[in-house]
């Protein structure tokens, strides 16, 4: 005799649409806040870099004083920091990311040409991650203990191999020796295979583990016994009941992973000589190309915000229990 | 005609450790057979062996294990699936978790219909099944998810899924454990109707009262074996096995008031000499409302007034959500009332602050339903009590008083059994030398026999130390057994109060009458009245 | 397999084919008038021609200008321009185009980071007639024609010069043997197609018509290993900047050829701060140069692909003085003697020399990770003669800051240039980097008056012979002074499959795509 | 790459064979010796360049061979443990400290404090971990110290969130209520009951994330944002050996194996500890 019974109170709430709208509005506001915060933090961080922006910009060149003056005037580098900052924010508000100091073209344009390649890589990695993890988790879940140990051992090993090293090994074997995949470039699908594998290795290992444990945990749930007692097959059980539950923690995990893939892509893009935002950022940071760095940071933050909104939406769709709030 | 189910010498082992050892029973068509026994005695495993769902790693052996002449020992997976749901329905033990929380209730009910292709048009049948199972507004409920249903509704929906494919045998594993007395009554009624309509029923319960009212035949299990069986009237009035006898004795009821239940504390057989003292707590007209965004406010206390005297036990009863816990927490000053006052020792909580408030706190302690949750997980039993009273001698004395052995208290509390944990909680509460202890459902999670021991310890401590109890429970039997005075609450209001015997034996308010009437165990009560004590 | 210095044609050239090339570096802006990088010169050269061409031996040859006259005060240059030359956009090449280009380069709005300073003497241009242009200088500058020969001052279509200079960071339109419709895409590369009308290569070119190749596709691949893999796996036909290990391997792999040519100019060198610190003492500098086994380090780090340096200039630079080579020898005994003489006669417990209790320590400042191995080995070599080198690997900002302040003892760089004039760029007193002047190349902060006088003489020189004579004097004095520690002669490397024929290099080390052809 | 910077890896109990734990302990012991007292493993100076013995394959004198500068690779791998592991440990330690302090503050400072701190954490969280390290490296110059700070900053929000949630959970728990009921002062309850019980999960998370930190720190060195040359560091050694891969395998294989083994050992042990922790509380 316990007191677990839950009263079903008649729910008298505002219409669903209003509620959804309010949630969306609050989220949008939060997202804008995060973006402004990220832009602000990056701006002042970059200003804290040693050496004046002008010097870094003109490093190792023999620009004449006239050119120097021109650069300072054009990028308003002689204004006070705060003037620069607010001018920058003001432009941001109108959707103008400014002009890259070094590349001499609009930040948005510079990022825009590289972005598709990075998104391609991230998307391929995500697809690979999801497909491989579901397959591996389902294979791994029903096994005996020693097989499970083996699976988790291999996962541990994969997580322990640095992705850039894995990338080098893949390149050496499959490009340089076997010539199956191109060694450089990012123009076509075959150029996507090895980078996606190198980048997906860690997520696959992590997601597989979470998914498999989710499967095992769900298989222990009472409703699984109830479903089995209705005489449904194991396949139907997994498809209709178990996978959805196991997928719940994975959706939020995938949100995190997508965010971090943008960071991981930097390394992979370097290893595989791929086009992408990662390499753009690395050189922008080295060149103290402030508008470009902030642009990339904002982009990454936007991806993060969007992905997390998607993850919440997915959770909302998958799990009716979250719809109450 | 052979019985529908025939089990002979069933042995189920997990990793070499037998959980069921040599159980034999029959279930005839249209018969209600009950398995009773304490937690872990093997009831569920026994029942699930009829579905081939004993769990991962179970080794099932039997001389005979047959359903309608079909030898279950040699079934393949496909044949099992033909049996499950279609011929044998299961209402699994954990009803609240037995509906997939991610699927609509209707889909769950429809699943066996589709799986076994029972009907062409599924939806009308689902609605009919839900209505049949006593679910009001089936059109609405069908589209809801399980978390939107109350425990009772979930239990009924689950029964609907189990009955959907019209099985010949229904296994109901603890179908009313989590339910209020009133809801419990409805569910039991539903099962009784099904049995009357010809479905054989294998009923599992730890609650003798439930079993006694419903079953045609009872098997009492202990440690994986059936220790006694027979028709309920026989088993309950004339228990042959000491275990059955102890089990019966342990049930707290009005009739057993003032006596020891467990037989472990002889002192309780002495007459009770308590006289209630001065007024310790005065509650005047307290109101408490909870506001949750997007919902109308909930009134958890609507003008409650009462007093607690030194050394007495005040019982608070009422169904779930009626505000019992809220009132209890207000007594401790943990929840401040919206209006009205709670005075302790003549001073309202609102007038106490800082060190004075903390000092007053020590004089009114609490015992929770889940004792483990109230212990710091890093602490051993002794540390837990020592935190309340640094004097090691006093700690040792109290531990002895509640019946905890020295060897048990230097381990982390989670390694103790449920009953031991609750004794530890009592020891801690007593260690602060309180005048009052608020006990919020202290025995609801315990087996009858363990419950008996804990109740005995509480009564014993009160007699020795003169501490007053505010005893919150939804179990009328327990309250009747322990309380001097009783408050009956409903929707935050006190609907009736007075001496325990007066209120519970001759209820005046209609709500109280319903509560009392809903308590199962007519057969049991009759049996107990003829049972010899000891 | 094999290695060539500069391959002559093997068989008769065939027209057609697409050459796929992977290169290491990309410019931040394609337009060499704006960008200072070698990458922009490399990628723009197929697109733009120059007024004059600087070929082997530093000789200036006619190109878009068929002839020119220099006034006696050497302030006015009158160019006669080639007729019937067209830009890729159809515009006609004429005197106005030349004027527009030069004026545009020196306009600060262009933010030219190199081209403008190459012609810092430029005053103005005058269109004499359609095919004659007169250029006036503010002061005589004997490097002016060399400057005009670089892609940085290549002539671009006047129509493209009027708009936002940033537009030319992607597409440059010139009169070159190739054209590029899509232009340069960052991190990706650039594709060229043949300019079928091309008929105006520099004088003496082997191919005097349109290019042999139909097209060139250039991909950016910063990693040397990946480039090499791309070449050996057949993904590309040729790669630029072959790493030394790969270069050695390529030379011995069937089906591949390593094309290579030394860069004229200044070898890769360590530059001592001659103005302050231990290296202000000539004896210490000389000891440092003599006491370290530079050739061995070069062999260790570059696997024999780069030869050890033997002078202030590389041997292929016009005006190189070979008579000084014996001075660049490995002589530990002499080094130790010099250091003893400089007062660093005692050693501390770790074996480093000390003077007045102070350790002989020099700080080597760098910001390019590419020199790590070299620095490590130089450090080890210096330790042998008791000199401690502290490696300071700095970020760009700090590096520039300290460069301008002169807060360092050693710094490294090389400088490719077609002639000995480069000596002044790196050792001219007016080129010392200071906070006021900004970045400049005299990192040795060298001011020896005798050498400065030689530079002045060379600048004024009426003919090449006397100019070279002045630079030879400067080389001797610089060597005596140990104002620079040359390490190795940089080479340009171009690895290709043996289908790629007739690979030759331009003055600045880029391959001459105009005459390359592919075997079918 | 998924780093601990970004994922609160929910790793559940995995039973690890005893032999695995023993092997992990041995590896970690060797790594610990290498990190703290590399002199015990090798008497060779990792930065001593023997110009006469460059790029020697492994032999009796040089167990792992020598690099292009004639430096003993065994000595460099041994000394490299210090850089990689200490960066990982340092970053994890800093992140733990920061996470616990900030998380507790967020939970304890009431609605507004919580809101402000949480939003700030969101901002940091929105920037992928490695990008953050790039920024920090750009500002402070690439070094082991910056890598440590950068990794720590990137990890703090994740840890702080866990701590905050735990503090809130523990604070609402019955045993904290019971402690208040015994009349103990609030701060005492927070220190004695709330914080110790709240930090458990984040410690478990930290043991697992340590491995990811080591991988991340070697990745940073690989792109040149780690400790500066000539400091021996595994990632940097891999980057340096990369160009030589066609002529010499040993400069890339040994550091790579060193990272992998270390991270594997750390992960195995971390999971083991986490499993033990969970068994203790569940
Ligand atoms: N899948 C399993 N693996 C191992 N042991 C099990 C498994 N299922 C049940 N047991 C063990 O078998 C014994 C009997 O369990 P069972 O669930 O039948 O008890 P019960 O009488 O139904 O108890 P309760 O009243 O608590 O439901 C217990 O000791 C239990 O721990
Ligand atoms: N902190 C709270 N916030 C909002 N609502 C609350 C809160 N605490 C209790 N309630 C609501 O107040 C009502 C009374 O709750 P209370 O816990 O006092 O009931 P109860 O009689 O103890 O029930 P049970 O037998 O289930 O323990 C319930 O509807 C409950 O949902
Ligand atoms: Mg059971
Ligand atoms: Mg309650
Ligand atoms: Ni109960």
TrEMBL record, chain A:
InterPro entries in UniProt: BPD_transp_1_N, MetI-like, MetI-like_sf
Membrane topology note: Multi-pass membrane protein
Domain ABC transmembrane type-1: 115-315
Domain of life: Bacteria
Example of a GO cellular component annotation carried by this entry: plasma membrane
Membrane-crossing segments per the record: 20-46, 121-142, 154-180, 192-211, 246-272, 292-318
GO molecular function: dipeptide transmembrane transporter activity
CDD domains, A to Z: TM_PBP2
Compartment(s): Cell membrane
Keyword Cell membrane included in the entry's annotation: yes
Chief subcellular location: membrane
UniProt entry keywords in alphabetical sequence: Cell membrane, Membrane, Transmembrane, Transmembrane helix, Transport
Family recorded in the similarity comment: Belongs to the binding-protein-dependent transport system permease family.
Matches recorded under PANTHER family: DIPEPTIDE TRANSPORT SYSTEM PERMEASE PROTEIN DPPB-RELATED (PTHR43163)
UniProt protein name: Peptide/nickel transport system permease protein
Organism expressing this protein natively: Actinokineospora auranticolor
UniProtKB/TrEMBL annotation, chain B:
Pfam families, per database record: ABC_tran, oligo_HPY
MF (Gene Ontology): ATP binding; ATP hydrolysis activity
Record domain ABC transporter: where: 5-248, 281-516
SUPFAM superfamilies the record matches: P-loop containing nucleoside triphosphate hydrolases
GO biological process: peptide transport; transmembrane transport
PROSITE patterns assigned to the protein according to its UniProt record, in alphabetical order: ABC_TRANSPORTER_1, ABC_TRANSPORTER_2
Alphabetized UniProt keyword annotations: ATP-binding, Nucleotide-binding, Transport
Family: Belongs to the ABC transporter superfamily.
Name by which UniProt lists this protein: Peptide/nickel transport system ATP-binding protein
Organism: Actinokineospora auranticolor
UniProtKB/TrEMBL annotation, chain D:
Record's GO cellular component terms: plasma membrane
Compartments in which it is found: Cell membrane
InterPro entries attached to this UniProt entry: BP-dependent_transpt_permease (IPR050366), MetI-like (IPR000515), MetI-like_sf (IPR035906)
SUPFAM superfamilies linked to this entry: MetI-like
Primary localisation category: membrane
Topology with respect to the bilayer: Multi-pass membrane protein
ABC transmembrane type-1 domain sequence ranges: 81-270
CDD domains recorded: TM_PBP2
A Gene Ontology biological process term: transmembrane transport
Transmembrane parts of this sequence: 21-41, 81-107, 119-139, 145-163, 202-227, 247-270
Keyword terms of this UniProt record: Cell membrane, Membrane, Transmembrane, Transmembrane helix, Transport
Family from the record: Belongs to the binding-protein-dependent transport system permease family.
Protein name: Peptide/nickel transport system permease protein
Provenance organism: Actinokineospora auranticolor
């Amino acid at each position: 005799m316990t007191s677990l019974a839950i009263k079903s109170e008649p729910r008298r709430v505002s219409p669903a649409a209003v509620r959804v709208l309010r949630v969306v509005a609050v989220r949008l506001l939060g997202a804008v806040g995060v973006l402004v915060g990220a832009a602000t933090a990056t701006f002042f961080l970059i200003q804290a870099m040693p050496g004046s922006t002008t010097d870094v910009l003109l490093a190792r060149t023999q620009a004449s004083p006239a050119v120097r003056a021109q650069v300072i005037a054009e990028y308003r580098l002689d204004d006070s920091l705060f003037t620069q900052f607010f001018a920058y924010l003001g432009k941001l508000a109108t959707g103008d990311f400014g002009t890259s100091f070094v590349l001499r073209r609009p930040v948005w344009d510079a990022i825009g040409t590289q972005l598709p390649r990075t998104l391609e890589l991230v998307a391929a990695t995500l697809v690979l991650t999801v497909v491989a993890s579901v397959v591996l988790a389902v294979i791994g879940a029903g096994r005996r203990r020693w097989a499970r140990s083996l699976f988790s051992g291999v996962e541990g090993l994969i997580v322990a191999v640095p992705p850039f090293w894995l990338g080098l090994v893949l390149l050496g074997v499959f490009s340089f020796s076997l010539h199956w995949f191109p060694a450089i470039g990012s123009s076509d699908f075959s150029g996507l295979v090895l980078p996606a594998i190198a980048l997906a290795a860690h997520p696959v290992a992590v997601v597989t583990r979470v998914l498999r444990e989710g499967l095992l945990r769900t298989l222990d749930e009472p409703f699984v016994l109830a479903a089995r007692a209705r005489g449904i097959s194991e396949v139907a059980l997994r498809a209709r009941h178990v996978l959805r539950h196991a997928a719940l923690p994975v959706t939020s995990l995938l949100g995190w992973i997508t965010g971090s893939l943008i960071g991981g892509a930097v390394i992979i893009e370097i290893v595989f000589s791929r086009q992408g935002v990662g390499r753009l950022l690395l050189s922008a940071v080295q060149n103290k190309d402030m508008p470009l760095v902030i642009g990339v940071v904002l982009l990454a933050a936007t991806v993060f915000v969007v992905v997390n909104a998607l993850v919440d939406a997915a959770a909302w769709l998958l799990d009716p229990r979250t719809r109450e709030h | 005609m052979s019985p529908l189910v025939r089990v002979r010498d069933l042995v189920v082992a997990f990793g070499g450790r037998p959980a069921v050892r040599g159980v034999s029973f029959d279930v005839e068509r249209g018969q209600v057979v009950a398995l009773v026994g304490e937690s872990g005695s093997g009831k569920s495993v026994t029942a699930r062996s009829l579905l081939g769902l004993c769990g991962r790693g179970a080794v099932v052996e039997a001389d005979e294990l047959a359903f309608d002449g079909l030898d279950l020992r040699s079934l393949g997976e496909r044949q099992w699936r033909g049996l499950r749901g279609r011929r044998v329905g299961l209402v699994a033990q954990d009803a609240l978790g037995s509906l997939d929380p991610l699927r609509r209730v209707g889909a769950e009910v429809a699943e066996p219909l589709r799986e076994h292709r029972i009907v062409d048009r599924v939806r009308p049948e689902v609605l009919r099944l839900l209505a049949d199972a006593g679910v009001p507004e089936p059109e609405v409920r069908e589209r809801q998810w399980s978390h939107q249903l109350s425990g009772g509704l979930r239990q009924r929906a689950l029964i609907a899924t189990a009955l959907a494919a019209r099985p010949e045998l229904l296994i109901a594993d603890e179908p009313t454990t989590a339910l209020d007395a009133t809801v419990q009554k409805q569910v039991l009624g539903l099962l009784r109707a099904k049995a009357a309509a010809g479905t054989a029923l294998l009923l599992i319960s730890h609650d003798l009262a439930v079993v006694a009212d419903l079953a045609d035949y009872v098997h009492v299990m202990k440690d994986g074996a059936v220790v006694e069986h027979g028709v309920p009237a026989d088993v309950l009035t004339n228990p042959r096995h000491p275990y059955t006898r102890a089990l019966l004795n342990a049930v707290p009821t009005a009739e057993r008031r003032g006596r020891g239940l467990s037989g472990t504390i002889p002192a309780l057989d002495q007459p009770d000499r308590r006289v209630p003292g001065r007024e310790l707590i005065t509650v005047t007209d307290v109101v408490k409302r909870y506001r949750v965004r997007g919902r109308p406010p909930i009134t958890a206390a609507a003008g409650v007034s009462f007093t607690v005297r030194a050394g007495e036990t005040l019982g608070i009863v009422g169904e779930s959500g009626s505000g019992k816990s809220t009132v209890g927490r207000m007594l401790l000053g943990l929840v401040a009332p919206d209006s009205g006052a709670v005075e302790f020792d003549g001073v309202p909580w609102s007038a106490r602050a800082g060190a004075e408030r903390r000092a007053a706190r020590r004089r009114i302690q609490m015992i929770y339903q889940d004792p483990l949750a109230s212990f710091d997980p890093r602490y051993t039993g002794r540390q837990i009590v020592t935190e309340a009273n640094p004097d090691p001698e006093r700690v040792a004395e109290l531990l002895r008083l509640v019946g905890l052995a020295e060897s048990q208290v230097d381990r982390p509390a989670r390694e103790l059994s449920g009953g031991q944990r609750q004794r530890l909680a009592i020891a801690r509460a007593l260690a602060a030398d309180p005048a009052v202890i608020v006990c919020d459902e202290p025995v609801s999670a315990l087996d009858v026999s363990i419950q008996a021991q804990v109740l005995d310890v509480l009564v014993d401590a009160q007699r020795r130390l003169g501490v007053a109890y505010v005893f919150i429970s939804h179990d009328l039997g327990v309250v009747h057994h322990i309380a001097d005075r009783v408050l009956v609450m409903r929707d935050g209001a006190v609907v009736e109060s007075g001496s325990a015997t007066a209120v519970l034996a001759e209820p005046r308010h209609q709500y109280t009458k319903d509560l009392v009437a809903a308590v199962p165990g007519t057969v049991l009560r009759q049996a107990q009245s003829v049972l010899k004590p000891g | 397999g094999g290695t060539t210095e500069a391959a002559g044609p093997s068989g008769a050239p065939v027209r057609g084919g697409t050459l796929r090339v992977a290169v290491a570096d990309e410019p931040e802006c394609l337009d060499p008038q704006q960008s200072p990088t070698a990458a922009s010169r490399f990628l723009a050269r197929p697109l733009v021609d120059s007024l004059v061409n600087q070929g082997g031996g530093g000789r200036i040859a006619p190109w878009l200008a068929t002839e020119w006259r220099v006034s006696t005060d050497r302030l006015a240059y009158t160019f006669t321009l080639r007729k019937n030359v067209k830009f890729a956009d159809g515009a006609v090449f004429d005197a106005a185009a030349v004027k527009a280009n030069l004026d545009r380069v020196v306009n600060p709005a262009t933010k030219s980071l190199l081209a403008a300073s190459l012609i810092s003497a430029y005053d103005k241009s005058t269109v004499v007639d359609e095919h004659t242009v007169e250029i006036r200088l503010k002061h005589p500058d004997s490097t002016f024609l060399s400057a005009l020969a670089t892609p940085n001052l290549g002539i671009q279509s006047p129509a493209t010069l009027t708009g936002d200079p940033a537009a030319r960071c992607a597409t440059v339109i010139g009169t070159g043997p190739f054209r590029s419709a899509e232009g340069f895409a960052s991190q990706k590369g650039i594709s060229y197609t043949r300019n079928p009308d091309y008929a105006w290569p520099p004088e003496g070119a082997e191919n005097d018509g349109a290019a042999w190749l139909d097209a060139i596709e250039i991909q950016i691949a910063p990693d040397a290993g990946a480039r090499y893999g791309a070449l050996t796996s057949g993904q590309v036909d040729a790669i630029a900047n072959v790493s030394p290990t790969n270069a050695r391997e390529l030379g011995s792999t069937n089906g591949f050829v390593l094309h290579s040519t030394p860069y004229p100019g200044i070898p890769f060198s360590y530059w001592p701060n001659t103005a302050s610190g231990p290296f202000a003492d000539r004896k210490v500098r000389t000891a440092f140069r003599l006491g370290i086994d530079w050739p061995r380090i070069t062999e260790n780090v570059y696997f024999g692909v780069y030869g050890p340096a033997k002078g202030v200039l590389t041997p292929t630079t016009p005006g190189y003085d070979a008579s000084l080579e014996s001075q660049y020898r490995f002589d530990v005994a002499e080094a130790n003697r010099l250091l003893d003489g400089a007062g660093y006669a005692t050693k501390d417990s770790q074996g480093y020399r000390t003077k007045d209790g102070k350790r002989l320590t020099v700080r080597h400042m760098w910001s390019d990770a590419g020199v790590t191995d070299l620095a490590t080995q130089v450090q080890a070599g210096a330790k042998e003669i008791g000199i401690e080198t502290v490696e300071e690997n700095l970020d760009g900002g700090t590096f520039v800051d300290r460069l301008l302040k002169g807060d360092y003892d050693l710094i490294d760089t090389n400088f490719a240039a077609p002639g000995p004039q480069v000596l002044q760029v790196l050792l001219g007193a007016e080129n010392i980097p200071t906070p006021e002047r900004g970045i400049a190349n005299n990192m040795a902060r060298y001011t020896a008056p005798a050498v400065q006088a030689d530079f002045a003489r060379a600048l004024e020189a009426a003919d090449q012979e006397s100019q070279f004579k002045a630079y030879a004097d400067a080389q001797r004095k610089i060597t005596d002074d140990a104002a620079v520690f040359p390490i190795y002669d940089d080479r340009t490397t171009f690895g290709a499959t043996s289908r790629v024929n007739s690979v030759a290099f331009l003055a600045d080390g880029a391959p001459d795509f105009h005459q390359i052809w592919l075997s079918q | 790459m998924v780093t601990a910077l970004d994922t609160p890896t929910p790793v559940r109990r995995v039973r690890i064979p005893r032999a695995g734990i023993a092997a992990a302990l041995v590896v970690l012991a060797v790594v610990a010796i290498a990190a703290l007292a590399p002199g015990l493993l090798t008497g060779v100076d990792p930065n001593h360049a023997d110009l006469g013995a460059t790029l020697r394959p492994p032999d009796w004198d040089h167990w792992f061979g020598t690099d292009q500068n004639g430096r003993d690779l065994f000595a460099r791998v041994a000394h490299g443990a210090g850089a990689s592991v200490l960066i990982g440990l340092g970053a994890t330690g800093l992140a733990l400290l920061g996470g616990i302090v900030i998380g507790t503050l967020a939970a304890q400072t009431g609605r507004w404090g919580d809101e402000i701190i949480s939003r700030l954490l969101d901002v940091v969280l929105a920037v992928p971990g490695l990008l953050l390290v790039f920024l920090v490296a750009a500002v402070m110059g690439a070094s082991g110290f910056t890598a440590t700070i950068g990794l720590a900053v990137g990890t703090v929000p994740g840890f702080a969130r866990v701590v905050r949630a735990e503090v809130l959970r523990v604070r609402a728990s019955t045993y904290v209520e019971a402690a208040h009921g015994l009349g103990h002062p609030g701060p005492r309850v927070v220190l004695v009951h709330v914080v110790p019980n709240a930090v458990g999960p984040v410690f478990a998370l930290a043991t697992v994330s340590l491995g990811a930190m080591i991988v991340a720190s070697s990745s940073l060195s690989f792109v040149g944002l780690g400790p500066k040359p000539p400091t021996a560091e595994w990632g940097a050694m891999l980057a340096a050996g990369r160009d030589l891969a066609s002529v010499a395998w040993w400069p890339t294989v040994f550091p790579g194996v060193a990272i992998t083994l270390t991270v594997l050992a750390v992960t195995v042990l971390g999971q083991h500890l986490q499993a033990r922790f969970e068994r203790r509380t569940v």
